[in-house]
Amino acid sequence: MTTPTTTPPWHAAYPAPSNPDPPSITAAELLERMQQGQQPGKDFVLVDLRRNDHEGGTIRGSINLPAQSLYPTIPTLYELFAQAGVKEIIFYCTSSRGRGPRGAGWFVDHLTQRGNSQMKSLVLQNGIKGWVASGEEYTKCMDEYEKTVWST
């Protein structure tokens, strides 16, 4: 009789972040910044970590970098963000309970290794689900928003 093998989670191939609970930002704080004229890609970078569940839209100005391929790209992302003068990177996934904090935590670790205290790595509390659940004021600030995806 063979024993079923369990496949380890994708993130098991990488070290756990030093801080599993990185600094965060609320949807209300992010929306306020956007309404005050701060722009994703200029004043901060929004990183949507969803992969096969990337549907229903994304917060306007986000870049999609699936969490499963994030860790090895962090040094390159850091260099790009540093050269562009980006001071904050905000990570999120569906609920920001797994991939979001993990990605933000890995980036915090890299900032620490580089001795960079000027750049911040944050996680969006409650992820894209929390953003959408906050109402129309929030969904108006999404690209490719599909209401039907979120109403199930």
Please identify the oligomeric state.
single chain
Largest sheet: 5 strands, parallel
SSE succession: EHEEEHEHEHHEH
Number of strands: 7
- The rounded Rg comes to 16 Å
What is the overall shape? globular
Summed up, the helix count is: 6
- Pairing-aware structural class of the strands and helices? alpha/beta
Strand order of the largest sheet: 1-6-5-2-4
**In percent, how much strand structure appears in the residues?**
5-15%
Question: What is the rounded distance between the termini?
Answer: 41 Å
Question: Your description of this structure?
Answer:
Strand 5, helix 3 and strand 6 (120-124) form a beta-alpha-beta unit. The chain has helices at residues 27-35, 74-84, 99-114, 127-133, 136-139, 147-150; strands spanning 24-25, 45-48, 58-59, 63-64, 88-92, 120-124, 142-143. The chain is α/β, with parallel strands linked by helices and 152 residues long. It has six helices and seven strands, in the order E-H-E-E-E-H-E-H-E-H-H-E-H.
Keywords:
152 residues, alpha/beta, five-stranded parallel beta sheet, two-stranded antiparallel ribbon, 7 strands, globular
Summarize the topology:
Elements: E1 24-25, H1 27-35, E2 45-48, E3 58-59, E4 63-64, H2 74-84, E5 88-92, H3 99-114, E6 120-124, H4 127-133, H5 136-139, E7 142-143, H6 147-150
Parallel strand pairs: 1-6, 2-4, 2-5, 5-6
Antiparallel strand pairs: 3-7
